[in-house]
Write a structure and sequence with these properties.
alpha/beta; 8 helices; single chain; two-stranded antiparallel ribbon; about 250 residues; TIM Barrel; about 40% helix
């Protein structure tokens, strides 16, 4: 029976985390830099443990004003420290809760920059590797985030999105552009099924792009996050897919 990981960005101070958690298999928890704080991290870890959800660090730029979605130009050392410090923060709370981290997924602008910048992707991969070689690096499907992490010897997960549209080069449509977001549960599940079953995704202009889906992301801060998660969870199970986290 085919399995698929369903992940969600969480711990960002929004009210729907408790409702989303039973519907997913992996949680990417903000580490206090772009959103959240220690108490929110603890609360989110507790929720994940209660529902058997894999726990991952979601490090982003230290920019709560812009929610970590504005690109920054930092030195290699600054990027390395940015990532390691956030993983350690969440790891400490996880350890105290009797659990461990499963994966790391960069957030926002850091994620998007590393998807097409080999040097940045390599620094992030090195930071993750140096913290724990068993951590899985979640990155944009087919991007240099994946290839650079594999070069470092990390296990990777090709991530696809249930609520974002794609460009012909396989990148996500920038949020500043029209049609960047999928607005209906029907549109979301149609794209998710295509990515899982056909290993392709259709862009807004009709281009069909090859894609690998190891894990499907729903943005927890999206206006339709809960509706999307419920519908995707239900339909995937109806199709005979098992929703479970990736084995580390």
């Amino acid at each position: 029976m085919q399995a698929i990981d369903l992940n969600c960005d969480m711990g960002e101070g929004l009210a729907n985390d408790a409702l989303l958690m039973p519907l997913i298999s992996s949680a990417n928890i903000a580490c206090g830099y772009h959103a959240g704080n220690k108490s929110v991290m603890q609360y989110t870890i507790d929720l994940a443990l209660a529902h058997g959800v894999a726990i991952g660090a979601h490090p982003g730029y230290a920019d709560k004003v812009n929610f970590g979605r504005v690109a920054m130009q930092l030195s290699e050392t600054e990027i390395y420290d940015l990532v390691t410090q956030q993983i350690f923060l969440l790891q400490k709370i996880a350890d105290a809760s009797g659990t461990s981290l499963h994966h790391v997924k960069p957030h926002g602008a850091l994620y998007n920059q590393s998807a097409n910048n080999p040097s940045l992707a390599a620094i992030i991969a090195q930071a993750v590797f140096d913290v724990d070689t068993n951590l899985i690096l979640y990155g944009l499907s087919g991007s240099v985030s994946i290839t650079e992490a594999r070069k470092k010897g990390l296990k990777t997960a090709n991530e696809v999105f249930a609520d974002r549209t794609y460009q012909p080069d396989g990148s996500l449509t920038p949020r500043s552009q029209p049609n960047a977001m999928i607005e209906t549960p029907a549109g979301s599940i149609r794209q998710v099924l295509q990515m899982i079953q056909d290993k392709t995704v259709t862009t807004p202009n009709g281009t069909i792009v090859p894609i690998q889906a190891d894990t499907v992301c729903i943005h927890g801060d999206g206006p339709h996050a809960l509706a999307f998660a419920k519908h995707i969870n239900e339909v995937l199970q109806q199709k005979g897919l098992v929703i479970k986290s990736i084995l580390s």
